[in-house]
Known about the structure:
Elements: E1 4-8, H1 14-26, E2 29-32, H2 52-57, E3 78-84, H3 93-100, E4 107-113, H4 120-132, E5 138-139, E6 143-144, H5 148-157
Parallel strand pairs: 1-2, 1-3, 3-4, 4-5, 4-6
Helix pairs in contact: 3-4
Amino acid sequence: MSKSIVFYFSATNTTKQRAEKIASKLGADLFAIQAEKPYSAADLDWHDPNSRTSIEQHQHASRVAIKDDLPAINDYDTVLIGFPIWWGIPPRLIADLIDRLPLNGKQLAGFATSGSSGFERAQSYLERTVKENNADVQVLPGAVLNSDAQMDAWLKQLNLN
């Protein structure tokens, strides 16, 4: 079994493609996160202030439930979590994922795809969620990875490749 696992959430397959490349490069296992209640196209309409994602992303400290089908991660040293950035932060279901993972003794890094946001607020979100769970985990610097070059540089920076 691989020492790394890549979890990802992808609404449009952009993050899925990046997660697949990272997993392939690292020889890591890959797992798709699913919302307990799947998102429809209308839910994802960020132009509509009444869409599901618009409402969820503006409810601070909220969680969106994920399907309860997570793999055991006892044998992994490194957990990578990929997601799109919505309103500057990860989708709220990423907090539910972190709540459910036994991260003690592991290293955790997030990566994202984004058309315009940087990773600073997403990094703070991940660190805050880990702290809320009192997890003894090393949170590594994350990054927006929209290209193979960005991905390769990030993996090299983290000494994961």
